[in-house]
Amino acid sequence: MKVKMFRESLGMSQKELAEKAGIAQSTVHYIESGGNYTHKTLQKLATALGISVSELLGETQPKAAGE
What is the pTM of this model? Predict the structure, then answer.
């Protein structure tokens, strides 16, 4: 799971990501620390980060700007 990598690349704090995704900051921390997550939470995080769930999970490479 690459939540922290994507979040930091956007210059976002856990709190900012949580607010944008509509979840608790403690949930972001828990997931970044290796905790379990639901598909619904993954979708919220991916949307807030502007990426796909596959990218968030590391299954596909992020698209370069302009692609």
Answer: 0.85
